[in-house]
Amino acid sequence: MDKVERDAVAQWMAKNVDGFRGPLTVRKFDVGQSNPTYLLRAESGAYVLRRKPPGVLLKSAHAVDREFRVQRALSDSDVPVPRMLALCEDESVLGAMFYVMEHVEGRSFLDPTLPDVSPTQRGAVINEMNRVLAAIHSVDIVAAGLADYGPEGSYYARQLGRWTKQYRASETGPLPDMDRLISWLETHLPPDDGQRTLVHGDYRIDNLLFTKDGSDIRAVLDWELSTIGHPFADLAGVLMQWQLPPGPEGRGLAGVDREALGLPTDAEFVADYCQRRGIDRIDNLGFYVAFAFFRMAAILQGVKKRALDGNASNPDKALKLGGFVPRFAELGLEAAAT
Question: Per the database record, which ranges form the Aminoglycoside phosphotransferase domain (predicted)?
Answer without folding.
Answer: 25-249
